[in-house]
């Protein structure tokens, strides 16, 4: 029994050591992180939520998305108090994570040697490695542990490369440099904790596409991010489609309720509590004759409302 226990322990330690020597998890490991997702995946194992859902998500408010996640038991997915290069834009995309730490020579040597064995670019700094894996629709999300001076993860050169590959911006719990140049990249934006003219120093990349912490939020590779001037929410891929539809219906309910309150047809108490049969019928009639274009298909709406407890 003791021998079996020792062998099992050695196997676990060997597995951990093997994992620790890789910059990124294997596709199977990323699939394990994101086991709730049953749809298409990228070659690296990350969930590939559709572009159509990403487009619809851009119209969802922070409060609506936060409320759905909270009801699902996800309490640690929001981070706020960002600085933005362009405050009037929003962004959605599939997360690529990166973890940075203060430099330690022996670990830094291991990271560089591991990257060399994996065929990663050896010229320049390791802060270019996460950029090399980006595909269109990806958002580069990095934990720079809040370092501002000498913690600038990118400047305008790397910013141009990021946008060329992903057609997206970045979210850094850290800083950037060359903000003036970054601001001139059409379509690019950055959610950051600060900016500084210094170069990155005494800081090292340790992992790509592993779980990271962004302030109050826990972020997994393949999460879907909703980023607005009001904050960022990181959504598990397997919940995003339901979140979008639920939030869209909530927005329709709010639009209907506000309209009827302005008309004086119902009291605030009637709208803010469980709706009566008469209000439910009025809402369904209003939706069926909606004056604009519904954000979802009629079938999606009908199927959702069948299960709805007003």
Automatic annotation (TrEMBL):
SUPFAM superfamilies: RraA-like
Pfam families, alphabetized: RraA-like
Listed InterPro entries: RraA/RraA-like, RraA/RraA-like_sf
Keywords: Signal
Cleaved signal peptide residues: 1-22
Superkingdom of origin: Bacteria
Identification of the protein by name: Regulator of RNase E activity RraA
Gene3D superfamilies referenced in this protein's UniProt entry, alphabetically: Ribonuclease E inhibitor RraA/RraA-like
């Amino acid at each position: 029994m003791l021998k079996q226990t020792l062998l099992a322990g050695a196997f676990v330690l060997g597995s951990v050591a093997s994992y620790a020597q890789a910059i990124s998890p294997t596709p199977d490991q990323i699939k394990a992180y994101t086991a709730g997702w049953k749809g298409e995946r990228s070659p690296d194992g990350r969930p590939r939520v559709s572009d159509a859902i990403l487009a619809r998500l851009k119209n969802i408010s922070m409060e609506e998305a936060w409320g759905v996640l909270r009801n699902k038991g996800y309490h640690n997915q929001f981070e706020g108090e960002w600085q933005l290069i362009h405050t009037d834009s929003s962004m959605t995309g599939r997360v690529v994570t990166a973890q940075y730490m203060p430099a330690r020579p022996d670990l830094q040597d291991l990271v560089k040697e591991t990257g060399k064995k994996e065929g990663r670019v050896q010229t320049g700094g390791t802060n270019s490695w996460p950029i090399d894996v980006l595909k269109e629709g990806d958002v580069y999300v990095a934990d720079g542990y809040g370092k501002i001076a000498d913690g600038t993860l990118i400047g305008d050169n790397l910013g141009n490369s990021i946008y060329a590959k992903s057609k997206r911006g970045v979210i850094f719990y850290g800083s950037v440099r060359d903000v003036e140049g970054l601001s001139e990249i059409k379509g690019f934006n950055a959610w950051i904790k600060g900016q500084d003219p210094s170069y990155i120093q005494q800081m090292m990349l340790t992992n790509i596409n592993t779980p990271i912490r962004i302030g109050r939020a826990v972020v997994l590779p393949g999460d879907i991010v909703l980023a607005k001037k009001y904050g960022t929410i990181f959504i598990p891929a397997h919940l995003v489609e339901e979140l979008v539809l639920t939030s869209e219906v909530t927005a329709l309910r709010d639009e209907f309720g506000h309209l009827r309150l302005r008309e004086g047809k119902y009291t605030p108490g009637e709208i803010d509590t469980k709706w009566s049969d008469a209000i439910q019928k009025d809402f369904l009639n209003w939706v069926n004759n909606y004056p604009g274009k519904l954000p979802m298909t009629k079938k999606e709406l009908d199927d959702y409302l069948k299960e709805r407890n007003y």
